[in-house]
């Protein structure tokens, strides 16, 4: 469907048809879920213009565009294969008498439909279909399990659904998948954690599950590329809640993240940038041999976002310990900072200034 609709209907971030378009103060429109993730990740610039945004950007619903997309979807002919009406699919999914093949087809079609249709996502949760979806998440059939997880991820995209899904028991099922699922299912499960954690209250709830954070940390160790990245993203999402930082640190996340950062997983520096805010996190980082070298590597070779978090993390550590401060100077961090003075990113400028002052002032907070 997305290839048949005008490009203006597509979110500039996800490139998917927008289900809940909102206008940023820059004047550009994005899908709410995509721009919220951008903002929750710490960005305070417009993804298109790169111009700075307020500290707490306002997202204004673009009702006109939403109506256009909805009406266009209704009247546009589809070249895809015809499929059953959503209510028929839901009935087939929830009926005890439906053959397993029919249930799989229903999961597949609903996962495709709910990816772009927020109204259908709401109808599906209101219809009482969530328990059936969660039942298939528990399935021992990896194909059924993966389709159910994809549908669950789509349902979690709407903020109105996030708390309800947690109340229905989604976290318990998803954490189980993180531990024993297939690689693809584990990656989707970690993404669901990230999506659910957009709502602040869910961060605490997820972190309180006994095996949630340990399972994500284990995925950092044993997972493949996509799994590691999604696990790090999920940790970043839930570790904005202070108590979860300590839980991650207690699970041994710090040395694992530093090692992954050294191996090129830049998402790890974002998580470290949260964990460094805790005294326990700083102490754990100081125990890791070569920590300064890895952070310096980020400053030299990282993306703009990686450099931003690298500067912040280094400054926190140098402020905390004169030994770390000495090591940073020894590794030539001041010279690297001089090479970054032309950066236009406001956060990089601020963190750069702070780090230079720390290294030049020769002080630590202990």
From TrEMBL:
<dbReference type="InterPro" id="IPR045210">
    <property type="entry name" value="RING-Ubox_PUB"/>
</dbReference>
<comment type="pathway">
    <text>Protein modification; protein ubiquitination.</text>
</comment>
<protein>
    <recommendedName>
        <fullName>RING-type E3 ubiquitin transferase</fullName>
        <ecNumber>2.3.2.27</ecNumber>
    </recommendedName>
</protein>
<dbReference type="InterPro" id="IPR000225">
    <property type="entry name" value="Armadillo"/>
</dbReference>
<dbReference type="GO" id="GO:0016567">
    <property type="term" value="P:protein ubiquitination"/>
</dbReference>
<dbReference type="InterPro" id="IPR016024">
    <property type="entry name" value="ARM-type_fold"/>
</dbReference>
<dbReference type="GO" id="GO:0061630">
    <property type="term" value="F:ubiquitin protein ligase activity"/>
</dbReference>
<dbReference type="Pfam" id="PF04564">
    <property type="entry name" value="U-box"/>
</dbReference>
<feature type="domain" description="U-box">
    <location>
        <begin position="4"/>
        <end position="79"/>
    </location>
</feature>
<keyword id="KW-0808">Transferase</keyword>
<dbReference type="InterPro" id="IPR011989">
    <property type="entry name" value="ARM-like"/>
</dbReference>
<keyword id="KW-0677">Repeat</keyword>
<dbReference type="InterPro" id="IPR058678">
    <property type="entry name" value="ARM_PUB"/>
</dbReference>
<dbReference type="InterPro" id="IPR013083">
    <property type="entry name" value="Znf_RING/FYVE/PHD"/>
</dbReference>
<feature type="repeat" description="ARM">
    <location>
        <begin position="128"/>
        <end position="170"/>
    </location>
</feature>
<keyword id="KW-0833">Ubl conjugation pathway</keyword>
<dbReference type="Pfam" id="PF25598">
    <property type="entry name" value="ARM_PUB"/>
</dbReference>
<dbReference type="InterPro" id="IPR003613">
    <property type="entry name" value="Ubox_domain"/>
</dbReference>
């Amino acid at each position: 469907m997305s290839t048949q609709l005008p490009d203006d209907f597509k979110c500039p971030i996800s490139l998917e048809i927008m289900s809940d378009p909102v206008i940023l103060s820059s004047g550009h429109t994005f899908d709410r879920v995509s721009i919220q993730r951008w903002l929750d990740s710490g960005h305070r610039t417009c993804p298109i213009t790169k111009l700075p945004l307020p500290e707490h950007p306002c997202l204004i619903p673009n009702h006109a565009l939403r109506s256009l997309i909805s009406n266009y979807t209704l009247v546009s002919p589809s070249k895809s294969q015809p499929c059953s009406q959503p209510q028929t699919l839901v009935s087939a999914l929830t009926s005890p008498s439906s053959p397993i093949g029919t249930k799989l087809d229903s999961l597949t079609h609903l996962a495709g439909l709910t990816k772009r249709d927020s109204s259908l996502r709401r109808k599906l949760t209101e219809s009482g279909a969530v328990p059936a979806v969660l039942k298939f998440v528990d399935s021992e059939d990896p194909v059924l399990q993966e389709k159910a997880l994809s549908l669950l991820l789509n349902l979690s995209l709407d903020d109105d659904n996030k708390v309800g899904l947690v109340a229905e028991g989604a976290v318990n099922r998803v954490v189980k998948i993180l531990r024993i699922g297939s690689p693809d299912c584990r990656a989707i499960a970690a993404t669901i954690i990230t999506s659910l954690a957009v709502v602040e209250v869910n961060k605490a709830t997820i972190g309180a599950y006994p095996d949630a954070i340990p399972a994500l940390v284990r995925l950092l160790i044993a997972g493949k590329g996509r799994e590691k990245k999604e696990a790090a993203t999920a940790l970043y999402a839930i570790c904005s809640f202070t108590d979860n930082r300590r839980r991650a640190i207690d699970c041994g996340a710090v040395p694992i993240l530093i090692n992954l950062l050294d191996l090129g997983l830049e998402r790890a520096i974002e998580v470290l940038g949260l964990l460094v805010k805790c005294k326990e996190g700083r102490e754990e980082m100081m125990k890791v041999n070569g920590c300064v070298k890895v952070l310096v590597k980020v400053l030299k070779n990282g993306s703009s976002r990686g450099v931003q978090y690298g500067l912040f993390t280094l400054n926190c550590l140098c402020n905390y310990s004169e030994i770390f401060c000495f090591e940073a100077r020894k590794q030539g961090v001041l010279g690297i900072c001089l090479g970054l003075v032309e950066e236009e990113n406001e956060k990089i400028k601020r963190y750069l200034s702070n780090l230079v002052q720390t290294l030049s002032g020769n002080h630590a907070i202990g």
